[in-house]
């Protein structure tokens, strides 16, 4: 077998005289295609996955320094309902990362960085599946995002269920993976005599197969735009097949997803598609015996001790599925009940009033939408493990759109205490780009906001 050597970075001179690291060695000099304008201004309170808050909105403008005619690069994209966004975790603060991390969802338990969606990874690259609301000129408008304002975006790719969703694989995935992983883990971990938690590689849970190949047809206005306001959903959009529900997407991604009301149906479907009772009888016994993953304490911190749990072979013809560990869906961190104090309720009303006395929302269409977003964010418990365990009684702040939210957490709940206009307007990171209006119906609000909040 040919062993791939590990070459060091080998810079190559380009025509213009500048030195670029060689692609062949895997060194990529990136240039963001744009910087995200997002309703979340800081990491605190930003959903940990896009599926958590379907109302979270953003706009990405392709930079003219990338393409002279940015709109050309987006041609055809409007036919897709969802897009992958590849981005840089530019606010990670430091470059170091650890092989084992403690995802907030595991509440202090450690697992390997590559089995998580942690922002702290060797290359600080993020991947988000977002809903494409519309394409307008050289800009795309997204919802269901988990990125902060100013995030440098490296690439956009259309979500294509036929390529990106494992149920479309010809071979039943769970059988293939399980055989492979069990074989590999036995060989890898037993042959060298080392003990490793992963020597009993665990995979569990069948995902619901998706029927999410779909197309969008948007009527074009004479001015070449899609004719819809950013905040308004395009009613003329024709979904030819089932559109993936956030939860379904989350399931495919192996990510957490909670709290959005719209998720419950999909959640039920996942449950009903993958229940113990659909297992073959012989298999069921064994699988149930193997049971749930165990969590063991090692040194000072707990780590996941995976236990093999097979994905059931399901009804003939529906056996294609993916697998995720239990903790993705059955985390030790329970969803929280979210409450608003009467004060917060009044604040919210004021903030969404159109009387001009206060700045009003730029990304949310109504107080109701803002409320849903706040509920979604808090229900998923956005606190770090440290805060959750050691600073329980501290107030928690975050900003979404123009709302600065103050809340506290009790046992099983989060309570919103105040909602005030954010004192600082969101600034763009890219000096070349100005914060331009997020759609025609927003420009009026934005102007008013800018007047009230001069930079
Ligand atoms: C857990 S990561 C997941 C991101 C992406 N869906 C993925 O799987 O790669 C999402 C979190 O990253 C943080 N985040 C978002 N944008 C960021 C940025 N530009 N720089 C650093 N951290 C960011 C926020 O705290 C957010 O809750």
From TrEMBL:
Q: Looking at the record, which segments are called Disordered?
A: 209-245
The record's annotation in Gene3D superfamilies points to: YaeB-like
- Pfam families of this UniProt entry? TrmO_N
PROSITE patterns noted in UniProt: PROKAR_LIPOPROTEIN, TSAA_1, TSAA_2
The GO molecular function terms of this record are: methyltransferase activity
Q: Give the species.
A: Mustela putorius furo (European domestic ferret)
What name is this protein filed under?
A: tRNA (adenine(37)-N6)-methyltransferase
Q: Report which reactions are catalysed by this protein.
A: N(6)-L-threonylcarbamoyladenosine(37) in tRNA + S-adenosyl-L-methionine = N(6)-methyl,N(6)-L-threonylcarbamoyladenosine(37) in tRNA + S-adenosyl-L-homocysteine + H(+)
The UniProt record lists the keyword Lipid metabolism: no
InterPro entries, A to Z: TrmO-like_N (IPR023370), UPF0066_cons_site (IPR023368), YaeB-like (IPR040372), YaeB-like_sf (IPR036413), YaeB_N_sf (IPR036414)
Q: Name one GO biological process term.
A: methylation
Write out the biased-composition intervals (Basic and acidic residues). 209-223
Decide whether keyword S-adenosyl-L-methionine is in the record.
yes
| Family, similarity comment | Belongs to the tRNA methyltransferase O family.
Sorted alphabetically, the keyword list is: Methyltransferase, S-adenosyl-L-methionine, Transferase, tRNA processing
List each copy of the TsaA-like domain by range: 30-168
Q: Which SUPFAM superfamilies match?
A: YaeB-like
Q: What lineage does the source organism belong to?
A: Eukaryota, Metazoa, Chordata, Craniata, Vertebrata
Q: Which PANTHER family match?
A: TRNA (ADENINE(37)-N6)-METHYLTRANSFERASE
